[in-house]
Amino acid sequence: MTHRDEPPETDGPAMGDAGFAVDSAARAPHAAPRNAADGASPLVTRRALLAGAASAVGSAAVARWSVLAAQGAGEAGSAPTTPPAVPADASRVPGLPSAALGTRSPFERPALAPVGVTSGSSLTPLQALQGTITPSDLHFQRHHNGIAVIDPARYELLVHGLVERPTAFTLDDLRRFPAVTRVVCIECSGNGRGAFRSPRRDMTPQVVDGLTSNSEWTGVPVALVLAEAGVRPGASWVLAEGGDAAVMARSIPLEKMLDDALLVYAQNGEPLRMANGYPVRLLLPGYEGNMSVKWLRRLEVNARPTMTRNETAKYTDPLPGGKARLFSFVMDAKSVITAPAHPGRLSGPGWWPVTGLAWSGRGRITRVDVSADGGRHWAAAELSGPVLPAAHTRFQYMWRWDGRPARLMSRAVDETGYVQPTLAQFRTVRGRGTDYHFNYIRAWDVAADGQVFFAADE
After folding, report:
1. Count of structural domains within the chain
2. Domain containing residue 84
3. Span 335-384, pLDDT tens digits
4. Residue 115: left if φ>0, alpha if ψ -120 to 50, beta else—which one?
5. b/e map of 6-38 (b: 16 or more CB within 10 Å)?
6. Do 216 and 269 form a contact (C-beta atoms < 8 A)?
7. CATH no. for residue 280?
8. What is the pLDDT of residues 40-51, one digit of tens each?
9. Are residues 91 and 163 in the same domain?
10. How many CB atoms sit inside 10 A of residue 367's CB?
């Protein structure tokens, strides 16, 4: 680490990231051999079997390498669309060789959407996930001016302002501090805006609430780095600035930075993905997502908030009467049912699991209630452990569907006693013109034929 009095020079804008067929001719694996003397097909020899297997492996290998190429083409790549060839019986054919990276089965094709975005959002497919951890490559992305490409060997984090020793920390410097690992979710403050402003029945959980993801993060507490620099008396805020082309900057209370804020360089056991802030991002558990600044390059300790563009013109909550909430950092308790949900369909009456995710920026989720009659009656769902503060919690409720139209809803309660509001309650307090923190109860309609739709008529 080196001491400095001035911030580093700004680099120019960095731009980056921009059914399966079965061979109908395959022989049934347990077909009885036929006698050549009867004019039937001769016995299959080991050589012929191996030759056929090699052909099948070749076809499958070609398909796999195309899948690998598609997945390794960069973080802007999309899921493969060409189905691979598969053998009739995988136990009779040698498997594929190992590769440098493991890939998903081509039968599983979750994907962020949309792709090719430099200003906007790419949403997590919540309905395709199990448990609570979001795979790193499916973590939602909020783009302000593309994905920064930063050389870790040249990376520096400058800590300056009201400090005794202005210091530039390299990536290696940060890794020398004692590491901390926490499971925390990040949610964009605009998550749910589309469903609130322009609801449609064909919305999926990804479209409704896909701007939230949950990961295991590893890094160094900000408090240790600030202690190394020596915070001066009178300091109460810290400006965090990103090194991307948007130069995202947010003012953060010093109290939060000294509490549980982390400088993270790893996610789910590996270095951060580029789109998720590589090589270092800020992590503020429970706070709105844009404050966990990606590609972090500067922390400036100040006596007051800086009032940047992204905390004045943006990321303030309009309220009825011409007022606005400023510095509405904490994300309120929220839940979303991920199944049954559109475009799913229930195949018939009977027992069905109603499952989804709940979280709160204020701490742990203590209860999730589920209703199958539009909120007239509620029953407690089961919470799958571990239940962690400021992290996704999986809930499940076994529901017996009688085949009649139904409306499914979920309602989260956190350890502060906060209860997720209804849409009517949310509108009363926040108004129809609010732009952030959409945490009202979501609903899904199950039609008599089992088809599920987002309840867009609330």
Report:
1. 3
2. 55-95
3. 999 999 999 999 999 999 999 999 999 999 999 999 999 999 999 999 99
4. beta
5. ebeeeeeebebbeeeeeeeeeeeeeeeeeeeee
6. yes
7. 3.90.420.10
8. 333 444 444 444
9. no
10. 16
